[in-house]
Amino acid sequence: MAKQLLPWTYVLLSLTAAEQPSAPKPVAAPMRPLPWGQLNFLQTTDTHGWHAGHLQESQYSADWGDYISFAERMHQKADEIGADLLLVDTGDRVEGNGLYDASKPKGRYDYDIFKEQDIDIICTGNHELYQADAAAREYTQTVPNFKGKYLASNLDYIKPDTGERIPMAQRFRKFTTKNQGIRVLAFGFLFDFTGNANNTIVQPVGKTIEEKWFQDAIREDVDLFIVIGHVTLHGPEYKAIFKAIRSQKWDTPIQFFGGHSHIRDFAKYDSKAYGFQSGRYMETVGWMSIDGIKSKGKKGDLKELELRSDMSFQRRYIDNNLFGYRYHTGLNESTFPTGHGQNVSASIHKARKALNLDYFYGCAPKDLWMSRAPYPSDNSLYSWLEKEVLADVATNPKRKDKPRMVIFNTGGMRFDIFKGTFTRDSTYIVSPFVSTLKYIKDVPFKAASQMLPLLNNGGPIFESTELQPWQLAPPEQLAIHYDIIAPQLSIQDSFISGAAQAPLLSSSPDLVPGYTTKDDAGDDGDDTLHAPISFYKIPNCIQATASMAEKSDPETVDLVFIDFIQPWVLTALQFTGQTYNNSHVENYRPEIFTDLLAGWIKEHWRGDCRS
Ligand SMILES: *[C@@H]1O[C@H](CO)[C@@H](O)[C@H](O)[C@H]1NC(C)=O
Ligand SMILES: *[C@@H]1O[C@H](CO)[C@@H](O)[C@H](O)[C@H]1NC(C)=O
Ligand SMILES: *[C@@H]1O[C@H](CO)[C@@H](O)[C@H](O)[C@H]1NC(C)=O
Ligand SMILES: *[C@@H]1O[C@H](CO)[C@@H](O)[C@H](O)[C@H]1NC(C)=O
């Protein structure tokens, strides 16, 4: 039997600062222990460069070096009890934090920091592939850094010198676990992504599973299939892979690891097939344990655990902070860190200094939330953009008196802004992309004014294309798309008719707000008890206008938009009867949006809130 879960216990450990000197101290909280099994996993996903941890949020303040210490301590424990521990990362390691985005070339320090973790199975996310240079670095740096561990089941790379198309990495991996002798066959997938630069080819999952190598692989005699992927647990891709494996192996256990939608999630496909996903941004480190695997390899003794004859799959979402890491390892401030972990924390600190990430831009006057505040409202990041920023930064000296509409997709923003210090790092955290403003001049007002409703309500015009308008919203909103999270209604609910109101749980005054996850296994997955946080549905796009006449509508406007949404805008324009194509799209401003935003903040958020 795996160890029974203990009831909530308050744990009093001595608390000290995390490894990044400016990180806030972790806060003591009621904890749930980690259930150990025969085979255990730690998962990271969608870290998006947050390898220094969260320097403004104590519950996520551990860094990549602390995670290395944690994994090393857990490996020691696994060896002591004769269990196995594997580490998994499911992609989107890049874009979203100054540690990756602020250097030239991007990731100059981050790849070397990341590679220090000993990951057993790793794959690619869509963010590694948007920019050709990032995809090339994936091939020349990350794949060799994780040689033999990096899997690319449906991803090819085009070599720049020869134009030759080759697998980004090996398609699958077969291995036997160290202590339990479990024979594993692992795959590494990416969802059916189409927005990649032209130096990679993502093959649709449905096609890949028909290929001979895959069909051969799923016929292999193994004790367990592990499918990792930058894939949502409830999307069509994992359903297809599950079906394909089950068509050959009706009884072999399958463990899926997902990513992309930035949520904590757990899915049951059948009694021996489960999926797990560990959130985003180094907020969450996932723990998964499996018991009852019938292994035909050499079976080690499990000293503290007894093998279950029936299978069990248990999960835990670990808040990434030192309080929890020490609690889960039973170690303290002096016994927890390893020399290797401390060295990596020191490298992160050095890199942050070299990149000047603490450089002060201004003081945010209040918290501005992506989905924790309704849209529109005073604390909505998007209301702030719409009312204060967009029209101001979308100004072209040659066209400044032309009436214009400025459209921005909500997914172009990646994180909340906290009241107080706003730094160079904050800029990349909020707006990591290298997007610029484009425009089409003199668009009939009638057509332009239909853009926002079409992009937000979708409908038949997009149905026959790969351009799903919900792809324009932040990935967290996918949880609503797949009915995993029922959003709270926002004040302006015109675009969310039909959405169910989530009950507001009564919150305990002592608890820090954070994840209160409900998944296919219930509501006891989080390792830390939190007060719940609101989650509102937001539109796909927002819009600001400028230089419009007071009384009458103009004949024509400049239709300004962030470059990412160009294909959607052109499709929507065609629907209104316009014949615009790519050749009509011109640059509106030369700067990337991130720099425009930083400029606006420097100018408008003056003052000094540094303590
Ligand atoms: C990819 O696009 C770039 C620029 O748009 C072009 O120069 C290059 O030849 C293309 N590469 C491939 C492999 O098609
Ligand atoms: C940490 O644990 C070790 C071994 O149990 C003990 O000797 C030491 O005093 C503890 N240190 C702190 C700071 O509690
Ligand atoms: C940590 O870094 C120091 C100095 O670079 C090095 O001598 C030492 O071997 C490293 N320790 C570990 C455990 O990596
Ligand atoms: C774009 O539209 C113009 C007419 O406005 C036309 O001449 C041109 O061929 C079109 N380009 C494409 C790629 O369809």
Describe this entry's structure for a reader.
By secondary structure, this protein is α/β, with parallel strands linked by helices. The protein folds into 2 domains: 9-354, Metallo-dependent phosphatases (Purple Acid Phosphatase, chain A, domain 2); 360-474 and 538-604, 5'-Nucleotidase, C-terminal domain (5'-nucleotidase,  domain 2), CATH 3.90.780. The chain has helices at residues 64-81, 98-101, 110-114, 132-145, 205-208, 212-217, 236-248, 322-329, 339-354, 381-393, 424-430, 445-448, 451-457, 460-463, 478-481, 566-575, 593-604; strands spanning 9-10, 30-31, 39-44, 84-89, 121-122, 155-158, 165-167, 172-176, 183-190, 200-202, 224-230, 254-258, 264-270, 273-278, 284-291, 312-319, 360-364, 404-409, 420-423, 436-444, 541-546, 556-562, 586-592. Strands 8-9-11-12-14-13 form a 6-stranded mixed sheet, covered by helices on one side. The chain has a 5-stranded mixed sheet with strand order 5-4-3-15-16, with helices on one face. A 5-stranded mixed sheet has the order 21-18-22-20-23, with helices on both faces. The chain is globular, with a radius of gyration of 24 Å. The protein binds 2-acetamido-2-deoxy-beta-D-glucopyranose (NAG) (4 copies). One 2-acetamido-2-deoxy-beta-D-glucopyranose binds next to loops.
